[in-house]
Amino acid sequence: MEIAVLLTCHNRKEKTVTCLDSLFNADLPSNYSLEVFLVDDGSTDETSEAIRKKFPQINIIEGNGNLYWNRGMHLAWKTASNTNNYDFYLWLNDDVILFNDSIITMLNDYSKKSNSVICGTMISEVNGEITYGGRCENSNLIEPNKKTPMKCHLINGNCVLISREIFHKTGFLDEFFHHAIGDFDYGLRVIKNGYECRVSTKNIGYCNDHIFLPEWCQKEHNLLKRIKSLYSPLGNWFHHV
Fold first, then answer.
1. Fewer CB within 10 Å of terminal CB in the chain, N or C?
2. Residue pLDDT, tens place only, 176-227
3. H-type helices in the chain, by residue range?
4. Contacts for 185-192 with beta carbons within 8 Å, 24 or more apart?
5. pLDDT tens readout for residues 41-75
6. Nearest to 73 by CA among 51, 56, 87, 90
């Protein structure tokens, strides 16, 4: 069984290398293997050089510096799907530090609920509180249940396991989105296609909270600045259909 691991990064060399260390140190079932596809979106801090030196097996895709998270992940995913028909795809943020049993936990959860995307639950390295994972319709985070992967309505894209079947039905992240919202959109499309989104039964890694409030939401900025922010890659969350 083969898992394509998808990442995108920009000028966070130390975090990216630490994330990859945790990935390759994570336990895997004996019949599983990983292939990593990482988009370096125009880093100027020698991220690619550091990765090539330490992890020569990783497939590095050069971005144009304007992809941000969602479009970077879209490019990584498209490259992976053109390379092989993988059994699973694993989204992974480059600021995540995976626990050793993280991947096995998510695979076991999938085996219990094989019609589901499994969304990994992240906790703060500072206080142990949940920072990212599966969310209710009101956007509140869902606590892991040790007995069963709980249903969720929205998914954070920090670490998400997607089967080949669900990918073939749902497709890629929507390239319309530059940075945010693409993960929420994808989870909703999964549900619309008759599948489910579920939360891992354990916390699977560290990822400190970095809630981003775009300038267009901040009343202290003048109207012109807020309008420019709204239609910038980091602010345009609206999909006109």
1. C
2. 787 568 999 999 999 999 999 999 999 999 999 865 555 544 456 555 554 4
3. 13-25, 47-54, 68-83, 102-112, 164-170, 182-192, 223-230
4. 185/239, 186/155, 186/157, 187/117, 187/119, 187/152, 187/153, 187/154, 187/155, 188/153, 188/154, 190/117, 190/166, 191/153
5. 999 999 999 999 999 999 999 998 888 889 999 99
6. 90
DSSP classification of residue 41: -
From the list 181, 36, 173, the residue with the least C-alpha distance to 117 is: 173
For residues 140 and 161, what is the distance between their CA atoms, to the nearest angstrom? 21
What pLDDT does residue 217 have?
A: 46
In Å, what is the CA distance from 58 to each residue of 32, 41, 109, 195? 17, 15, 27, 31
- Provide DSSP, 163-215: EHHHHHHH-SPPTT-SSSSHHHHHHHHHHHTT-EEEEEEEEEEE--------G
Output the pLDDT for position 226. Answer: 45
DSSP helix/strand/coil, 115: coil
Torsion of CA 182, 224, 209, 133, to 10 degrees: -20
Mean pLDDT, all residues of the chain: 90
pLDDT of residue 229: 46
φ/ψ region of 11 (left if φ > 0, alpha if ψ in -120 to 50, else beta) reads left
Which 3 state secondary structure label does DSSP give 119?
A: strand
Among 132, 119, 104, CA closest to 195: 119
The pLDDT of residue 163 is: 98
* Residue 216 DSSP label: G
One-letter identity of residue 116: S
d(CA 220, CA 185): 29
